[in-house]
Amino acid sequence: MTNPFSFLAERWHPTPQHVRRAALAALVMSVVIVVTGGAVRLTDSGLGCTTWPACTGSSVTPTPEMGVHGVIEFTNRMLTYVLSAAIGWFILAARCAKPWRRSLTKLGWAQFWLVFSNAVLGGITVLTDLNPYVVALHMVAALGLVWAAVLGWERSKEGDGAPHPLAAPGIQRFAQVLVASIGALVLVGTLVTGAGHHPGSAGTWRIPVDYDRLAQAHADLVFLAVGLTLAALLVFAAVKAPSAARARVRELFVLLLLQGTLGFVQYFTDAPEVMVGLHMLGAAVIWGAALRVPLALRTRAGIPAQSAAPSAELVA
Prior knowledge:
This protein is 69% helix and 1% strand. It is mainly α. The chain has two domains: 1-160, no CATH class; 162-300, Alpha-catenin/vinculin-like (Four Helix Bundle (Hemerythrin (Met), subunit A), Up-down Bundle). Strands 1-2 form a two-stranded antiparallel sheet. Helix 3 (67-96) runs antiparallel to helix 4 (102-127) and helix 5 (132-156) packs across helix 9. GO terms for molecular function: metal ion binding; oxidoreductase activity. Its main location: membrane.
């Protein structure tokens, strides 16, 4: 029996460029949802909808009495469907391409299930009155989605052959250590948020850890990440690493400097909402930029040639 995916795959044959565009759309939306989720917290709209999955006990959508906070929270929930549509486009494009990019399809489904699980986790944040630990886990899961989306986008530009290293094992491990340092930086950043300003709703309890000490630990990890990135710049140049890898390390270094400057200004100005929002955007972008570094240290066999089927056309 033919399933809907096979039925569509017999009639639609997107080009590799189309698949890459779909992968990029999924990646962009994965970053957008991080920013809009931050906007919910920064506007004190975390409990704009008082329950989940409906917005209130008697209404799926916000009521006029809930005001702007209900609209903001509900809009963020609706953007999850836009994100899901972008991922669905990627899954279908990867499935219908000729030949079938099975590895890309798996990455697309991984993104779908991450969105689904994080939507449930977002509901739990509401049902637990914005428990800061759950909110932090919600952010970590969102960055997990960014990870999967980055992999999907990068793999859409490669073939399906076995990976071939372009640098010595020591250089590859160094790149992985760099990614791990950025991951630790982001994780501690979620705890700083949970202990500090902008809980998402007035009166929400905070993580009972000294905010200044957490902020100092976060700053220490910033120095570590910047130092490792600077070292990577020098090492990659010395060993003549692939130009793409060197370019990505340069991009990461600039992003870290900008994010670090923003973070220090944010700390000493009592964390204004706009700066915190930009900082969250920066965290997602830096995480994605770090993930791309080790991916530039290997290559795969070229994308198979498009079959003779009509490209990117629906046929009757």
